[in-house]
What does this fold into?
Amino acid sequence: MGMALQFGRADEGILYRERPTAFGLVFHDQKLACVRVARDIPYHDLPGGAVEAGETEQQALIREFLEETGMTVRPVGRLTGAGQYFRKSDGEPINNIGGIWIAEMISIDPAAKVEADHELVWLHPRTALADLRHDAHAWAVAKWLRT
It folds into this structure.
């Protein structure tokens, strides 16, 4: 797989739990599918998340898109691998390590969405560049825009 790029900054003396992840870029009408996550301070993420035991990145991507947005997607290709140091809402230090995929939207069924605090929003890619919480996600959008 080669050395993945690492984003974020690890605080000195803190152990970050490595979490396998898969996130996706889905474009439709020149807009990028993102999720607006309702927290004390709302933020935007690419749809995706943790790869569970026994799952491939593709399987995790399909499941996470459905849970967060109600969208059924087909993974097309792995754009890049990247790590992202961050702290979860509960303060736990995490390093998300995994693939960022290009995927195609097949269908949307709002009733299939299970994560109530996640809302599907379609952002202009340049807006997403500025607004995405994780540098790794913004970097993947920039990489896509430049190809």
